[in-house]
Structures are given as C-alpha cells and as structure tokens.
Amino acid sequence: MAFAKARKKADGSTFYEIRAYCKEKKCHYTKYYYPPFGWSARAIKKQLQTEVEAFQVAVDAGEILSKEERKARDMAAAAEAALLKTLRQYAESVFMPTKEQSIAENTRLSYWSNLNEHILPCLGDTYMKDITPAMLSKLLLDFQKGHSHGSAVKVYNILNALFKMAYRDDTIKVNPMDKVDRPKQRKDDKAISEADKALFEDELLHVLDCVKSEPIKWQAFIYLAADTGARRGELCGLHWSDIDFKNGVVNIKRNLQYSKDKGVYEATPKGGRFRTVDIGEDTISILKQHQKEQASSRISKWVFAVDGEDDPMFPTTPTRYFKKFGEKYDIPGFHPHLLRHTSATLSLTNGGDPKSTADRLGHADAAVMLRNYAHANDESIRRAGQAARDALRKKKEQTEKEKAEA
Predict the structure, then answer these.
(1) Contact 233/315 with Cβ under 8 angstroms?
(2) Are residues 370 and 326 in the same domain?
(3) At which of 150, 179, 208 does a domain end?
(4) Rounded to an integer, what distance in angstroms lies between the CA atom of residue 159 and that of residue 118?
(5) Taking a C-beta distance cutoff of 8 angstroms, is the pair 166, 128 a contact?
(6) Domain containing residue 148
(7) CB-based burial label for 226 (10 Å; 0-12, 13-18, 19+)
(8) Going by DSSP bridges, is the β-strand pair 14-22/3-8 parallel, antiparallel, or unpaired?
(9) Helix (H, G, I), strand (E, B), or coil: what is residue 341?
(10) CB half-sphere exposure, 388, CA atoms < 13 A
(11) Are 302 and 239 within 8 A, CB to CB?
(12) Is there a contact between 269 and 255 (Cβ–Cβ < 8 Å)?
C-alpha cells in the first residue's frame, strides 16, 4: 500500500513524498504532494489520503512510468515518427503534439489555424522528403499576395520550426527551410518600426491628463500599464495581494487569456516566469483610490474586476475601452500594447540598460537576444523603471514651466 512521508523545503514549508509499490514490476514509484497555502491540518490530511490512494491505484493500473519506461516510450515514439511520410502526418502526429506542451493556448490555436488554412492545403499530402525549398518559397510568396507581412512571417516561423524538428529527429535528412528566405516587407507595405508603436513623452502626458476624466478603474489600468509595461492579460490577472503598496512593487504571477475552446483561463506570464516590477507614487495613489472605490460596492480579489462583481475583467475589455478612449481624445491607434512599447522606449532612451528593461517587461525574445549581457540585479531593474518615470516627470515640469512663463 502506498504511504506518505512529510518533508521540509528550504523555506520551512512542508510537502509530502508519496511512495507506492508495484508488485507486478517489483519496484517503487514516487510522487510529491504540495498542500495549498492556508489549508488546515485536517484538510491537508484528508486530501493527502486521497492522493495516496489514487497514486496506488494508478501504479497498479500501470499508468505511472519510471524514467526508464518514459525513455523507452519516447524512443518508440521517435521510431514511429520516422515512418510518417507526409507533411500532414508529421504535423498532426509529431510537430503539434510536441509544440502544445510548451506554448500558450492562443498560440496553439494560431498554429493550428495557419496549418489548416494555409500550409496543409498546399503541401499536406506531399512526402516530407520530397518537399523542396522552391515549394516552400512559392507557398510563402503566394501567401504574401493576400496577407500582411506580419502574417507571412508567422507562417514562415511555423514552417521553420516544423522542418527543424523533422531534421533533428531524422525524419528528413536535409532541412529545406535552410534555403528559404524570411519574407521581406513589400514595397507597398507601410513599415512600422518599434519606435512608431510608442508614444512620445508629451503624447503620454496627454493620455495621462485625459484619463483624469475617466472612471478611477481605468485611470488605474492606464497608469499601471504605462508605468510597468505589463501586458494586457497580465494586468487583468492581477490580484490585490500581488500589489505591495509599502514597497511600491507589483508581482506579476499570471496572465489572463481567452480562447473559444477554454473561455477565460489563467496562464503563467509569457515566457513562464514570474517577475516583480516597481511602480511610482502616482500609480500607487491611484491604485489605492481604485481599491477603496471597488470595496465600496463589492469585495473582489481581482484588481480589475467586472463592476459590482467578483469576476475578473474579460481580457479583451481593455482593447475595446482603449479604442473608444483613443477616438474620444483623438489618440490614433491607441491600444494596451502601445503603452507597453512606450514604457520600454522611454526607459531605453533615458538611461535604462537593455537587459534590465527586458527583464522588467518580461520580454522573452529580448531575454534570448540579450543573453550575453550582465545579469540584471534588483537595483538595475528598478533603475530601468525609474528612468521612464524621470523622463516623464522632467517633460511635465518643463511643460508646466513654459505655461507659467507664457
């Protein structure tokens, strides 16, 4: 019969090692149970007993595999993959099942959409070994005729990842994507640089001035977005317990997302890493006002909840609000991600070093590109945020001075 033994983590908290013996295979299997924070001893004991019994049942049923068994299973799967001949077979049986283990839900849906609508109808029934660089180049060129440059790059990236995986697991001997160029911007496309996606200092001050006439919840959202550079879903996923008013920091632990299949769900921040971001006094003040107003009608753990309810704000609500806000105050192309780009640009152009700025924003791509930079410590990350606020304050003081002298 399975049994559990209490263990201690480095921080002193208790977890449990559960061991079960399989008579048929004559070996032990181990799993770990971590009680949720705040549970009573009685509740933990009851749940632990359930975990122990369920683990023994799973072991007896052969559902639990050892490291050696998992290795053998993976090798068998690789051998089976080598038998997959067409692009469709490989994409559906190997590529997507592998990618789905590490990508977010919306990314998964995007991959399937591009595969089913644009890639597999063209080359799905072609043998992998017979696909040439010319075939792939033609697919991308034909796609570009009716789609944006960004969409073409997405299709290119999917093809690149798929054929790289097939080459590494020996499904194909040569990777045809090595000879396929990344789609280039068409001459009739308007190139948009990262700088064009950001507001200038006076434009951001205009936004912060306009939002004073809006509900306090949206004042808090826009100030927090501009200050932290956090993603829309990360802000929607904030709990009040994530905000440390005393130390002036926000702990970003979750990313609220939506898909047709799953509805609204919680995911980890992009890149799978939690991060702590400092915030300025103006942001803290507005957040406190928002918390007080929210509590007057309903107590919710969510910083941005549906008005009068406990549920979190729907992840797409900020995008709709920003669009109306931009139309109302004549701010073209105003959307949540614009404030993320603005926060990054202000920091980088006013003394924030790239590695610290990347860490502050939780930017996975920048983290990869800047892997050779010195590791950013807490103080350098704080300076990255302070650089953006200092630039904005300096511009504001200059504007007020010019008005006074006029």
Answers:
(1) yes
(2) yes
(3) 179
(4) 11
(5) yes
(6) 81-179
(7) buried
(8) antiparallel
(9) helix
(10) 37
(11) yes
(12) yes
Please indicate, yes or no, whether residues 85 and 134 belong to a single structural domain of this protein. Answer: yes
Tokens of 171: 């499904």
Q: What is the DSSP string of 300-363?
A: -SBSSBPTTSSSBPPTTHHHHHHHHHHHHTT-TT--HHHHHHHHHHHHHTTT--HHHHHHHHT-
- Measuring CA to CA, which residue among 216, 332, 350 is closest to residue 283? 216
Does residue 336 lie within any of the structural domains?
yes
Query: Residue 10: is its pLDDT beyond 50?
Result: yes
Q: Phi/psi at 191 (nearest 5 deg)?
A: -70, 135
Residue 117 has pLDDT above 50, yes or no: yes
Beta-bridged to residue 265, according to DSSP, are 257
Confidence of residue 79 (pLDDT cuts 50, 70, 90): low
pLDDT digits (tens, 9 = 90+) for 262-284: 788 888 887 677 899 999 999 99
Question: Are residue 238 and residue 349 in the same domain, yes or no?
Answer: yes
Which residues does 329 contact at the CB level (< 8 Å), separation at least 6?
A: 206, 207, 210
CA distance 54 to 34: 15
Give yes or no: residues 93 and 166 share one domain: yes
pLDDT in tens, 380-392: 566 677 777 888 8
